Recover the amino acids of this structure.
């Protein structure tokens, strides 16, 4: 149980760090009136698309949520809401990608729309992760068995199964390192935007 919960919370922290960086860079650009570094913004969105939307949420849906749904009628409404939030989060992310593309193509006139989309997505995603950690995981701790937790932990680990040559976590670490390398301080170690 501890391993599975730790993995889920660690993944939430990684997502939160990128969201914080995205929000920080967007606000800095607005407050300082400096041109955005679209390369960094695209890298951050690439990470969000690659990790939460393609790996993290599907694992939650298939392993944590479905197992909990089988074990607890009390969890069904919450699970339905959280799965609905996964769908909405994907829609908000696609909108954010489109707004970034428009911003990049049309310039400063679209800066406010991009900032608003970033803030909406970040606020939404942080609230979603809080609900999972504050409401869903405590309920899961009460009703799931050790066998359930072992299967959940294994599911979150299987992305790096060398038998299948699949290494998405390694690829995500490289993408995260890329974000840190090209983002300016205090988000990363890239060149300062003084």
């Amino acid at each position: 149980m501890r391993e599975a919960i730790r993995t889920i919370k660690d993944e939430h922290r990684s997502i939160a760090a990128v969201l914080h960086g995205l929000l920080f860079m967007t606000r800095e650009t607005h407050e300082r009136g400096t041109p955005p570094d679209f390369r960094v913004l695209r890298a951050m969105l690439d990470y969000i698309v690659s990790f939460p939307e393609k790996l993290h949420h599907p694992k939650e849906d298939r392993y944590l949520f479905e197992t909990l749904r089988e074990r607890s009628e009390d969890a069904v409404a919450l699970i339905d809401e959280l799965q609905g939030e996964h769908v909405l989060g994907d829609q908000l992310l696609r909108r954010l990608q489109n707004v970034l593309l428009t911003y990049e193509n049309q310039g400063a006139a679209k800066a406010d729309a991009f900032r608003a989309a970033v803030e909406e997505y970040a606020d939404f995603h942080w609230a979603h992760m809080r609900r999972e950690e504050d409401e869903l995981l405590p309920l899961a701790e009460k009703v799931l068995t050790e066998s359930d937790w072992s299967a959940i932990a294994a599911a979150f680990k299987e992305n790096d199964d060398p038998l299948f040559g699949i290494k998405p976590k390694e690829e995500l670490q490289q993408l995260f390192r890329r974000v840190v390398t090209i983002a300016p301080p205090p988000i990363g170690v890239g060149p300062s935007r003084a």
